[in-house]
Amino acid sequence: MATIYQHSTLAALMAGLLGGTTTVGELLTHGNTGIGTMHGVDGEVIILNGQVYQATADGQVHHITDKTATLPFATLHQEEAATATPITVQDATMQTMNMVNEQHLTNNFSSIVLQGTFEHVQVRVAPKATEPFPSLLDLTEQQPIFEKNDIAGTLVGYYSPALYHGVVAAGWHIHFLSDDRQFAGHVLAFNAQTLTGTLTAFADYQLHLPIDNVAFREHELDMTNLSAGITAAEGGAE
Amino acid sequence: MATIYQHSTLAALMAGLLGGTTTVGELLTHGNTGIGTMHGVDGEVIILNGQVYQATADGQVHHITDKTATLPFATLHQEEAATATPITVQDATMQTMNMVNEQHLTNNFSSIVLQGTFEHVQVRVAPKATEPFPSLLDLTEQQPIFEKNDIAGTLVGYYSPALYHGVVAAGWHIHFLSDDRQFAGHVLAFNAQTLTGTLTAFADYQLHLPIDNVAFREHELDMTNLSAGITAAEGGAE
Question: Fewer CB under 10 Å: which end of chain B, C or N?
Answer without folding.
Answer: C
